[in-house]
From TrEMBL:
Protein name as it appears in the record: enoyl-CoA hydratase
GO biological process: fatty acid beta-oxidation
Protein family (similarity comment): Belongs to the enoyl-CoA hydratase/isomerase family.
Function: Could possibly oxidize fatty acids using specific components.
Species annotation: Phyllobacterium endophyticum
Length: 257
């Protein structure tokens, strides 16, 4: 279907999605959610895609959930419809998903960036959970994911005061993996995604799954899981190819098998 709220492109082995509601600073409404999850799931199923980049505009990655859509929401509707639960579909994408963030990433925008596997930020990026200023609190994962990223003290500060964090503070706090000049943001994210897409896809996907396990389990269980997944990689032709290529001083030719 043609998309109205996002722009979707395939660039070699990288799926590229740009949020595109400029008139609302990419506020996340239901229509955008439906399109974004459909596009992400299509890339996830596409054998030619090895990684995905998600970005917004220069001014805003996304300025939050759509406040105008929520304005008349009643508790019963929110509860019965399990409002925001559909966003969890983003976290079920199995291929690496990189958020390339410039400008505002506020409320649901910050939460969407945190659902991605890592965040590359432009030096113009501003992160925040300002829901408290609207009489609510984060509802798309901010209270939990931000706390895991930056720790209790800074997460409390952000969620309780609603203040914004600039890109330098976000990098210092571990929220983003790298900060680049705004003009290089898409190039840097596409290069990172292209690099990932050049590796063995099953190994990439198992690596993502295993790192994510660190957030869901104890250290002992996580280490056991890692070892078992590591062992299983020796069933792949790509393990033999990668190590042979190293020994033979040539580039590997991974077949995703
Ligand atoms: N929802 C709906 N519309 C939004 C929006 C949002 N989250 N953020 C911005 N917009 C709209 C504005 O209403 C405005 O539309 P109009 O031109 O029709 O009035 C347009 O986008 C441009 O915004 P501004 O004129 O406000 O732009 P600015 O440069 O002066 O300010 C801003 C930028 C500081 C980001 C400001 O827009 C702002 O504070 N936005 C709201 C941020 C926010 O509170 N986000 C949290 C939302 S709640 C949430 O996300 C819940 C959750 O946990 C998931």
């Amino acid at each position: 279907m043609p998309y109205e709220n996002i722009i979707v492109e395939t660039r070699e082995k990288v799926g590229f999605i740009q949020l595109n509601r400029p008139q609302a600073l990419n506020a996340l409404n239901s229509a955008l959610l439906a399109e974004l999850t459909e596009a992400l799931e299509a890339f996830d199923k596409d054998d030619n895609i090895g990684a995905i980049v998600l970005t917004g505009s220069e001014k805003a990655f996304a300025a939050g959930a759509d406040i105008k859509e929520m304005l008349s929401l009643h508790f019963a509707d929110a509860y019965l419809g399990d409002y925001f639960s559909e966003w969890e579909r983003v976290t079920r994408i199995r291929k690496p998903l990189i958020a390339a963030v410039a400008g505002y990433a506020l409320g649901g925008g910050c939460e969407l960036a945190m659902m991605c596997d890592f965040i590359i930020a432009a030096d113009t990026a501003k992160f925040g959970q300002p829901e408290i200023t609207l009489g609510v609190m984060p509802g798309m994962g901010g209270s939990q994911r931000l706390t895991r990223f930056v720790g209790k003290s800074k997460s409390m500060d952000m969620c309780l005061t609603g203040r914004m964090m600039d890109a330098a503070e976000a990098e210092r706090s571990g929220l983003v993996s790298r900060v680049v000049p705004a003009g290089d943001l898409i190039g840097e994210a596409m290069r990172a995604a292209g690099k990932i897409a050049s590796f063995s896809l099953p190994v990439v996907m198992m690596t993502k799954e295993t790192v994510n396990r660190a957030y869901e389990t104890t250290l002992a269980e996580g280490l056991r899981f890692e070892r078992r997944v590591f062992h299983s990689m020796f069933a792949l032709d790509d393990q033999h190819e990668g190590m042979s290529a190293f020994a033979e001083k040539r580039a590997p030719n991974f077949k995703n098998r």
